[in-house]
Amino acid sequence: MQPAPLALFMGFGQSTLDFSLRAWTPDFDRSLVVRSDLLSRMYAALTQAGIEIPYPQTDLHLRSISEAAGATLAQARHPASGPEQPPGPA
User: Fold this and answer.
1) Global pTM?
2) pLDDT at site 61
3) Pairing of strands 16-22, 6-13
């Protein structure tokens, strides 16, 4: 008799809920194939349930850049308006 797969809640990560899935296979030589199949089926089930997997995002804060780089960034943000002008006096 094979043990049933077991899903364990392992804890809270940074913006994650961490689980571990334990499964048994009698054929150790196919363990990588079994693992791949499990992960593929888990992803398909999550997708079907409308659950998205978030990917880490990094914010980049520039302290100083050249005027040319600033103009390129401004143009990328507002392509139709042309080069961005510094704000005038209020």
Assistant:
1) 0.54
2) 81
3) antiparallel
